[in-house]
Amino acid sequence: MLPTLTIGSLTLPVAPLLTIASFWVGLWVAARAGKRLGIDEDVIFNAGFYGAVAGLIGARVWYVIEYWSFYRDRPGDIFALNFNTLAPLEGILTGLVVATIYLQRKRVPGASLLDALAPGLAAFAAGLSLANLAAGAAYGEPADLPWAIELWDARRHPTQIYDFVLTLGIWLVTWRIVVGSGDPTPTGRPGRAFAAFLALLSAARLFSEGFRGDSAALDGGWRLMQLLWLAVLLASLVALAWLDTRPRNVPEPREAEGMND
Amino acid sequence: MNRLQWTVVIIAAALLGGAWTWLSRAPEGLSDVASPVAGRPAPDFTLQTVDGEAVTLSDLRGQVVVLNFWATWCPPCRAEMPALQEVYDARRPDGLMVLAIDQNEPADLVASFRDELDLTFPLLLDPGYFVSDRYRIGLLPTTFFIDRGGVIRDVVLGGPMHRALIESKVAPLLESR
Fold first, then answer.
1. CATH code for the domain of B79
2. What is the ipTM of this complex?
3. Dist CA A225 CA A232 (whole Å)
4. Count of structural domains, chain B
5. B31-52: average pLDDT
6. Domain span holding position B45
7. Closest to A214 (Cβ–Cβ): which among B2, B39, B168?
């Protein structure tokens, strides 16, 4: 656990820095994958940049609106920047809307874009696992194992490291799918890499959540997130099956001949 | 893979996933472990104020507690003290308590700082960093927002916190009974 990093007289919170770094690594990976699928790298970088800026502004604006009664009498506090005065969910939604509008204006095909995002999201998720380790968040149950880590007054399952290793694997698998299916023609199967990413991520989280020491539990000890990940796993497997078994969009021989005339 | 093979895979995933979810159900009391992160009960402690009065965190159940770790040598800590005092004055009748834990400094130094700023909330002394270590404090100031049931609801790393920030954190906690 490394919540802060001290360099000289400067003390930096490590988890937020790792989160920001992971976002940019994920964006870079997505841009590289996009290039393989025939999407301009700059378009993905720009979408990420506009989305990040809009998300930050949106998160701040929503927070101020939510607590306007406190800011009304102190307008100067609106501009007192602090990561603790952001509305994260609203910020993410704002960023996604802005990025989506930009990508639609650039006429980027949706399914291919999702495929390009798959390895990038896996890289981002791997970075977030390290951020959780630094913050001591998403920690495991107490365990008497040789690889247990000391955290919060107990030796525990290193669930953050489980997540990191598993998401690294997902990154590699989804990258292989993108490289192997880098075919922007109509005969390709766009959407496979993203569906595979969802299936693998949900399977990995379903597994690691079982060792978590901070799970939200329902009556009977059922872990809420495990039930949600199981639902995502089954839905993404159905999507993969549909993509794999639907008829390919291959021109009929007669049509193909006609096209050659 | 053909449709039959996919059907087998999906059924196998449902069975295996369901079995693992059942096998790995959370043990009773999993969420009762005290740790200094949001969503967990705040680790308990007893410390003395600069006036020698003992304060125990668990005795404050029923009140919303702002637990602020600070030191006189820390400029952002000093800067946010007036905002903490303003919110404490405004919301004390609603059940707000502010505890400011000074890290390993002599009582007379802390007392003179209190008098200089006319602070009225309890300033606690943490000789030897006993409670700071328990809360894994690596950055000053660090502030925990604890609900009436003794559960940490938010953690603010760094500062200075302005008044609107503090009010926005304590208001939802004061509203819930």
1. 3.40.30.10
2. 0.81
3. 10
4. 1
5. 87
6. 31-175
7. B39
